[in-house]
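User: Run a structure prediction on this.
Assistant: Running it now.
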Amino acid sequence: MRIADVLLADYDTEIRSAQRLFERLPSIEKADWKPHEKSMLFGKLVMHVATLPGFGAMVLSEPILDMAQGKIPSFAYESPAQASAVLADLAAKTRKLLANIPDEEMETTWQLKFHDRVFFTGSRILAYRTMFFNHFVHHRAQLGVYLRLLEVPIPGMYGPSADEPINLG
């Protein structure tokens, strides 16, 4: 079995979970809300989650990512529909790259830097898993907490949630 085949199952599950949260995003009026003074603004967090698959695409397609080159686009939270569209578009592009990457490419060295300052050097698969995928899951979960605090019902991610229990009888 190819490395990508194993990663795709996890990828699809986590993207679907994010899309389920995005279906419940509140309106733009909540964009400047945050649960704590040190927390990220709600709208910024939404767009961070929406655009992280684009970072995953860069990990899969480029041997070096120099953050000083400004290749990562930023988007402002304009509406739930816009955020969902950004997530869907970038997730589809990343999925296509992941589905087609050979094992040999996953084992090559990948690097993250800012000008001459190197932050990470390691295998592409390690960069994909830690710098992109785990990062994505972390912020997707953080978004779930924000939604809970905003009294938005949370869908089940890995089974039922308190808002969507399973009726067994």
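The first strand starts at residue 64 and ends at 66.
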